[in-house]
From TrEMBL:
InterPro entries: MBL_Glyoxalase_II, Metallo-B-lactamas, RibonucZ/Hydroxyglut_hydro. PANTHER family: HYDROXYACYLGLUTATHIONE HYDROLASE GLOC (PTHR46233). This is MBL fold metallo-hydrolase. Its cofactor is Zn(2+). Keywords: Hydrolase, Metal-binding, Zinc. Transmembrane segments: none annotated. Pfam families: Lactamase_B. Residues 13-195 form the Metallo-beta-lactamase domain. It comes from the Bacteria.
Length: 212
């Protein structure tokens, strides 16, 4: 049985997630920690639960989702899984930092690329990969059909969708991807978003004003 723990990080109130199981194996998703307090909260949880980080996974590479990425890679020494189309977004990390008044170092991590239709295995639990660009070119959603939940990044929120006014954003593309790939899933599927509260596919299908 998979468990999910969230941590709210940085100036954007970004959701960093840890998924873990009874074997104490874990995935760290979108490490957005940017200060000592946020990093300590994540580290303490991993230590207290005696977890072994097996993967670092990105839904996309906007600055608020990767502020703790170098720390995570250096600490847990596992490759970073992401879609190749967001590599150019990651490469803009320092420039993005300057826009917010931050001086940041270039990110140097080992990358493993995934694409639409790939499947990730978590001790027998399968995660389907959906490529849903529009918020960023390489935005992906990780969906576990067995336990009916997804990590949606900034694709889909409670009552909203990801911004499309950023680099290579595309409103029509994002809406099309959500409707054809996510809304067709079981309505009870939980959605753990990159910001804000969890929601469900059924709720968003009925009440999300962007998806009417």
């Amino acid at each position: 049985m998979l468990q999910i723990q969230g941590f709210v990080c940085n100036f954007a109130s970004e959701n960093t997630y840890i998924i873990y199981n009874e074997n104490k194996n874990a995935w760290l998703i979108d490490p957005g920690n940017m200060n000592e307090q946020e990093t300590k909260a994540i580290e303490s949880f991993i230590t207290e639960k005696d977890l072994k980080i097996k993967k670092i996974i990105l839904t996309h590479a906007h600055i608020d989702h990767i502020l703790g990425l170098q720390w995570a890679f250096d600490t847990y020494k596992v490759p970073v899984t992401m879609h190749q189309d967001d590599k150019e977004v990651m490469d803009m990390f320092q420039i993005s930092g300057m826009r917010f008044g931050f001086e940041l170092d270039h990110i140097n991590v080992d990358l493993e690329y995934i694409k639409e239709g790939d499947e990730l295995d978590f001790d027998g639990e399968k995660f389907q990969i959906y490529h849903v660009p529009g918020h960023s070119p390489g935005s992906v959603v990780y969906h576990n059909e067995t336990q009916k939940f997804m990590i949606s990044g900034d694709v889909l929120f409670e009552g909203s969708i990801g911004r499309t006014d950023l680099y290579k954003g595309n409103y029509e593309q994002l809406i099309e991807g959500i409707k054809t790939k996510l809304l067709i899933l079981d309505k009870e599927t939980q959605v753990f978003s990159g910001h804000g509260n969890p929601t469900t596919i059924g709720f968003e299908k009925q009440y999300n004003p962007f998806l009417k």
